[in-house]
Amino acid sequence: MRQSEQLTGMIIALGQFPLVQQGMLGGSPERSLIWKDPRGFWKKARPDEMPNHSGDFVDLKTTASVLYRDTQYSIAEYGDIQQAAVVMGGRPRARHGREFLHLDLGRQR
């Protein structure tokens, strides 16, 4: 399957996802959060979607399998949990956002 066909399939699948239909991806895409932590270190995070009225930061990932065990392995292997921690660390500077939603999109072969 060509990459363009995969992307088209993901877009269609996302459009059918109930949370997306309710506006989950209706915020500000690809905005940077930049701040200085209490120790004086500069931090930067760039979630895929900044919250709109839902208050959820969204991070979209592709994965070979959406089975629970495989998803947990992928989160650990690629450090996605650290990304969530950094994004939530910048949350007060964004003045909105309550949760971090990690959304895995399975790839069809």
Give the gist of this structure:
InterPro entries: PDDEXK-like_dom_sf. The chain has 109 residues and is of the alpha+beta class.
Mean of pLDDT: 76
> Structural class from helices and strands?
alpha+beta
Q: Give the C-alpha Rg.
A: 15 Å
Query: How many distinct beta strands?
Result: 6
Strand portion, in percent?
A: 25-35%
| Termini Cα gap | 7 Å
As residue ranges, the low-confidence spans are: none
Number of spatially distinct domains: 1
Q: What is the 3D shape?
A: globular
As laid out across the biggest beta sheet, the strand order is: 1-4
Map the helices and strands.
Blueprint: H1 3-16, H2 18-21, E1 28-29, E2 33-36, E3 42-45, E4 49-50, E5 56-63, H3 68-77, H4 80-89, H5 91-94, E6 99-106
Parallel strand pairs: 5-6
Antiparallel strand pairs: 1-4, 2-3
InterPro entries: PDDEXK-like_dom_sf
